[in-house]
Amino acid sequence: MSQTVRMEYEWGVIDWLAGAEVGNSAELSVARVGLPAGNETDLHAHDNCEESVYVVRGDVECTSGGIAVKLGQGDLAMVVRGEAHRIRNDSSEPAELLLSYSSERRDFRVVVEA
């Protein structure tokens, strides 16, 4: 059984399941995200990897490259390397997401909106 590493933010929580944060993968990262109703992540980008966003539970809006897509349970969206993106939960129920990255240590930079 593997350990997880929890990171708490104002917008929700990330439980790292695989990657550098946990120390169990040299080539990818996997995280479970809890996004409470009405919350959204910062607009951000990962310059060293692609990201997949899979909705385990709930409904969210994933905006990537200025295009917003509604996602529900079982839906998947891909975010290309370096693309500014955010995930928003406009519903009245919490959402649970599974994120994966094509790097064991995904970089993160906040993107300032013009």
Description:
- The N and C termini lie far apart (45 Å).
- This protein has one domain: Sandwich (Jelly Rolls).
- The chain is an all-beta fold.
- It contains no helices and 11 strands.
- The protein is globular, with a radius of gyration of 13 Å.
- Helices cover 0% and strands 46% of the residues.
- A hairpin with a 4-residue loop joins strand 1 and strand 2.
- A 6-stranded antiparallel sheet has the order 1-2-3-10-5-8, with no helix packed on it. The protein has a 3-stranded antiparallel sheet with strand order 7-6-9, with no helix packed on it. Strands 4-11 form a two-stranded antiparallel sheet.
Task: Give a quick set of tags describing it.
mainly beta, Jelly Rolls, 6-stranded antiparallel beta sheet, 114 residues, 3-stranded antiparallel beta sheet
Oligomer: single chain
Radius of gyration: 13 Å
Assess the beta-strand content as a share of residues. over 45%
In CATH, what is the class?
A: Mainly Beta
Short description:
With 114 residues, the protein is mainly β.
